[in-house]
Structures are given as C-alpha cells and as structure tokens.
Amino acid sequence: MNANTRSGPLQDLKVIEICSTIAGPACTRLLADFGADVIKIEPPEGDPVRQMGQHLGDVSLYAASILRNKRSIALDLKTAEGRELAAELIARADIVVENNRPGVMERLGLGYEAMSARNPGLVMVRISGYGQDGPYSERPGYGAICEAVGGVRHMTGDPDRPPARVALATTDYLSSVYAAFGAMAAIHARQATGKGQVVDVALYEAAFTQMEPIVPAHDKLGVVPQREGSNLPSMAPNSSYPTADGGFVLIAANSQPTWRRLVALMQMPELLTDPRFETIQARGRPENMKAIDQIIADWTRGFDGNTLEHMLRAAEVPTSRVYTIADIYADPHFAARHMLQQVPHPTLGHTTQMGVVPRLSGTPGAVHRSGPDLGADGADILSDELQLSEARQQALIQSGAVKVPSTT
C-alpha cells in the first residue's frame, strides 16, 4: 500500500507499531484509517491478535479488521539484525506505538532515549497497564485487571451480584483513543518545538477517567456508589425491559412530560397520582424504582420488540430495542452512515468491517485494505523503506531475522 492508495489528513505521518493484542493495534488502526502509513512489526509467530476472535479457515476475522490499512513485517527482535532493522525503521518514523511492559523497549535498544538521539522529532506512544513509572509500573496489566483497579468493575453489573465483566474490550479501546489523541497532541507540539516526546497511556487511568463524577462526590460527600444494574442511578423509568419475543427494549422516560406520555401509552392514568411515582425524585428512590420497573416490565412483555419500539416512538418516548449484531446488519441507519463496509480480502473475497470513526467532512478517513497476512509486506519494506539490496534481503531471511510468507 503506497501513499497514492492512502487517503486522509495523516498521509504525511509514518508510524511504526510494535504492539500486540488490542489497545496498541486499535490505536494504530485509528491512525491508519486517517491515512498514516503504519508499518506493523510482528514477531515471527505473529501478533497473538491473529489467534483471537472467530476464524474462517485459517483467517482471523478480528485481525482482518484491527490490522486493516497497515503493512506487516515479521522481525525477530531477539536477533541483533532484527533489532537493527527495527531501529532503522523507527529512525525514519514520526511516531512509534508500543504496548510492552515498561523496560522491554529499553532492553531491546529501542527505548525513547536511544531512538530520540537518532530521531529528535520522534513521538513514542507507550501503552501499558499502569504507566511507565510508579510502584505498580512493573505489573502486567490487561484491560480487565485495570478495570478492577480503576474502579470500573465495582460499578458494573447488578447490585445483588458480584461485579460483572463487560463483554467487550472497553478499556483497551478507550485507551487506544487516548493514545491516538496523545499522539496527535504531541505531533502538534512538535510543529513549534521540532522535538518529539513520550505519550504515556496507562490502561487503569483510561478506565479511571470514566469515574469522573464519582471522584469529587467521594471527596466532598464520602459517597461510595454501588452497582445499579441496567438502571440509571436515581432516575426511573430508565432501564431495559423484556419483550414478548425474548428481547429487550430500553425505555428512558426521564422527564415529567415524557413520563406522562409513557403512562398515557400504557393506559394506566392512576400512576400519575400514585405518590410513589408523582415526581422524578420519588421515582428515583430504590424501592420505588423497583416497583415502577416491575409495572413497566409486565406491560412490555405483551408486545414484540419491533411493535413496542414503534409504539414508543410514536408516543415520543425515547427508546430502542437492545440491538444484537444481526439487528445492526439489518438497520438502515448503520447502512446510511457506512458503518458496515465490505473490504476486499485476498482469501475470503471480502470481510465486512465497522466503518471509520469519527467522520470528517473535509478530509475523511477510509478503509483501503484488510489486515495483511503475517509479514506480507516485508520484502517491500526492506527494499522501499530501507533500500536494501536483494542479496541483503535474502541474507536476512536466511538468518531468520526476517520472516516472509511462504510462496509454496
């Protein structure tokens, strides 16, 4: 993939990725979506993300998406030659993104101090569980662990059950956005100073930022909030309610006018004069929340999800069915905003992937290619980026410093 193929506002940036699994690759996928030339350095066995998610044959459908718009070179960084090739690529880059444990890059000779001496404008984005310093910095940190440390796991789930796991890699993806934002802020600062810097992103801190309203409340009021389940704290009705076809519908009747419209639709005018439900404050009391939720659930069970959703919308009550991925594929709004894109794939014909977020009106991002096979771009990178002769390339391949896909 050359510069003529790429499009977007970041076409002038070259990014080296030395990452595995989710947060780092998601960060560079975001940069690549907006035109950055991302070269992913993988070990000879490949990024573990290639083994994650669902597969069709030998193809990881997850890797096809999270590695999209990138180029792949497989280098053995345990070899001196592999490390030197990585250093040469970093020396030519604007940004390097890594999510190893603190100290690993330094042991490889690829730390910021060494690399910035060769490339003073280099921005190094470092994603780790607990950050580059502090007493926990050496601990391994995965998204789920860091959600627990950041207070998020305590807030997740139903109040009468143990803290629940969010079924998606929320903290990893939130961290990836912070990392991409930090990279762009550092590149902007470089325009004035000519110098790069380190962007230190800790997963536990990214998770902790979701606790923003809780932090000052604990300081001033000593509040330690508990799990609320599917309800909005102190606000009812605002929850997921069952439908006749086995699904759920989210109803958010937060204001008094909306509450009155919902009651009219339910044909239960007596609720308006019930002292438990007369005001927002009254409905927000825990015992009253349970009561109104039970009344609404008994009503919603009488309708299938589509019918109920249309009824609520016609009554101007904010609502949505709780979508499955099948619902998303059938939804016209996702289609209209190009959030499901068919991307060519050399083996499968195409894969359908999520669209580009955010949308820019003047210089939008785009998806140009599915995630490449391991090392698929190695030969081009060695010849085009590093200007190595064919003989030198073959020697590196023979030594095991570089791995290229088999042609047999």
From TrEMBL:
| Gene Ontology molecular function | transferase activity
Q: Which SUPFAM superfamilies match?
A: CoA-transferase family III (CaiB/BaiF)
* Entry protein name: CaiB/BaiF CoA transferase family protein
Look up keyword tRNA-binding and say if it applies: no
Arranged from A to Z, the UniProt key words for this protein are: Transferase
Q: Which InterPro entries does this one have?
A: CoA-transferase_III_domain, CoA-Trfase_fam_III, CoA-Trfase_III_dom3_sf, CoA-Trfase_III_dom_1_sf
> Superkingdom, according to UniProt?
Bacteria
Q: Is-annotated flag, keyword Transferase?
A: yes
